[in-house]
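Deliverable D4.2, example record:
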Amino acid sequence: MEIKIENAVPDGFTYERAHKIMHGRYGSMEFLVVPMSAEDQFQIQLYADVEGSAGKDQLFGYLKELQQRHSFVPYAGYNGKDMVSVYVSSKPQEDKENLTLVISEIEAKCQEYGIHNCCPYCGQERPVTAAVVDQIPTLICDSCGMQLSNGGGREKKENLPLGLVGAAIGVLLGSVLWVVLGQVGFIAGIAGYAIVFCGMKGYALLGKELSKTGIALCVILSLLMVAGAEIVSLAITIYRELGSLFAPTIWDAFGWVPEFLKEQDVLFGVGKDLAVGYILAIWASYASVKNAWQQVDESQRPHTVERF
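Output generated by the structure prediction step:
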């Protein structure tokens, strides 16, 4: 059954024929209505600050009730972040009435529970307008619309110092695997991958955003940490083998490391381990680093934004 969209547009809403979406303001809230012809349904979309509202639980209760109360609502739910979705089954003679009814109820409940529109790109409670970003219908605030058009992304500010702290913590955690494997005489690319992966995750977590600068710094820190982990592994070996005679504590063992590195056999063994380790680490981490780099490129590329 083909949905007759023109006959379903709620009063005050606009139908964008080129993109096959309806949008409009009802009361204090902006809504999107996306026809889903293949399923004979309409999807009502509302981007709202549900997480920051004291009426969150009440809204969830209402959505459950909405689905139970109206036979033409097969689903009403929340994506766990910022969007309320209500699906309305198409009944050609009743579409306009049913959509208007559901939209009016949602708006009234939002007013009652103190819930307002938010921008899905920056997460801020702001006035939003309908738009199509990279061919995807959405609601967006003025600031994010301009940023996306100019090649920006979400409103995040990279914190380089905190990012470095996070990367340092991450590579330290990742290097534990290198040391553990080294103690059983095993060198694996997964250990190098763990160092790089944990470094980038730590940078993104504390720095709020992983940029190309952040990726480069994480790779450098990871390469340095591989060498550091190998030295730690050597010190632990010294402690285990000679601790009772020359290195009663692990710190004493670290003091013996320079002396042992003067031995040609030890130096050759450490150099061989590092060479193999670096090759395996680069091999294992290349795809992950490349993917992260491409994601940054994608986030910085100008988006196509058509606002209504």
